[in-house]
Amino acid sequence: MAAVSKKGLKIRPSSILIRFMLHGRRYEESISMRPTQSNIKIAARMREEILREIQTGVFEFSNWFPDSKHAQKEVKPKNTFESVSQLYLKSLMLADSTILEYTKLLNQHWIPELGDELVANIRFSNLVEVVNSIPWPSAKTRNNALTPLRGVFQFAVQDMIIDQDPSQYLKNQKHLRPEPDPFSLQEANLITEWLYRNAHPCEANLIEFAFWTGLRSAELSGLMWSDVDWLHSKIKVQRARERYGGGLKPTKTYKVREVELNARAKAALQRQRQWSELSGKEVFINPNTGEHYMTNKAVRTYFTRALKKLGIRHRPSYNTRHTFCTLALISGANIMWVSQQMGHSSTQMTLTRYSKWINGVTNDSQSQLMDALNNRDNMNEANNQEGMI
Questions:
Q1: Which of 59, 216, 347, 352 could form a disulfide with 53 if both were Cys (CB 3.0 to 4.6 A apart)?
Q2: pLDDT grade, residue 74 (50/70/90)?
Q3: What are phi and psi of 118, to 5 degrees?
Q4: What pLDDT sits at residue 364?
Q5: Partners of 248 in the beta sheet?
Q6: Chain centre to alpha carbon of residue 352
Q7: Residue 230: left (phi > 0), alpha (psi -120 to 50), or beta?
Q8: CB under 8 Å to 383, separation ≥6 — which residues?
């Protein structure tokens, strides 16, 4: 009887082989089970767990396949780059999504090249050779990949495995940071109006709220009804949705902030109440599932559809955040207030990033300035329609 292949498995007459990739190499390991339907299901679950351990960087051959020739070779000297990498990852107190990203970068780029080397023997010249051998798609990708690499050596210094950190001399490459590309007030109005006519109200409410609060995509998904202060027209932004797995994490700056609601944002929130307030959990839900958005993919889909139908130049839905910031500055809102609303790390960051939209400073209510800007736009539109009659 010939071997039969299933997803990730090879079924033999008297055994089952589990297939998986580790550090860019394919493995097939046999398990001593007769290939019955129940045993095949068990093998499939084993493979899922093996893949999870590989992804998180804790997989060891000897735990799963003690009789494998690869398990015999697995005894490695202490303090190799790979072993220190695992210690470094376990020491991190970061969001799960960040740790997963670091794990992927280490497994993809650094462990295949440096894994068996003792960290004490790795020199700066070795690192330069490895870094320069990789065809990076962009300077930003390269810089991001260097972060966990440096982290491993910094951990090795802190753990007194080595005295000096050879990675400290690896410099980031300069790259052009894209300039904010906001939508105009007219474009923002067209998009929200189209969504209210053609999409689910939950989707339209989310986008209008995004345009008029400047929350990050992950913060919108993590907003709870318990964060809403109707009396003072504010919301408390204190968590964000993780990119992988849909769990919750602290905000990007690890700070809780209060965001003042202008009239447009409050109206969108009022309209959303009938759809999700009764559950007492997330404010914005996916109308197709009734649950919170696991990723931003669904939002990107209907937002992009609105842009195409309206003939508006494509920009990511995240640019609703840039739109809020620039409209606030154009209306004359205080730069410090805008920075606080946006949750920027400093006012200097807001000044640097959005300087060309700054129109002045005022002591008036900052939300009222944005309401006035919107009202002026509505009056101009009404006057234009009267002139056409």
A1: 59
A2: low
A3: -65, 135
A4: 47
A5: 241
A6: 24
A7: alpha
A8: none
The tokens for 357 are 């939209």
Q: Which has the closest alpha carbon to 184: 313, 300, 87?
A: 313
3-state secondary structure of 264: helix
For residue 145, the SS3 value is helix
Nearest CA among 12, 1, 59, 65 for reference residue 40: 12
What does pTM read for this prediction? 0.65
* Residues 355, 361, 363, 364, CA torsion sign: negative
Sheet containing 4-6: which strands, arranged edge to edge? 4-6, 9-11, 16-22, 25-31
Helix locations, 57-80, DSSP H: 61-64, 69-72
Domains and CATH numbers, the chain: 4-72 (no CATH), 81-169 (1.10.150.130), 185-388 (1.10.443.10)
- Cβ-proximal residues to 232 (8 Å cutoff; 6+ apart), any chain: none
Predicted confidence at residue 1, as pLDDT, reads: 43
Residue 10's DSSP bridge partners are: 5, 17
CA-based nearest residue to 156, from 170, 171, 166: 166
For residues 329 and 338, the answer to whether their CB atoms sit within 8 Å is yes
Q: With cut-offs at 50, 70 and 90, classify the pLDDT of residue 382.
A: low
Contacts of 1 (CB under 8 A, 6+ apart): 13
Q: pLDDT tens digits for 211-226?
A: 999 999 999 999 999 9
Structure tokens at 152: 């491993």
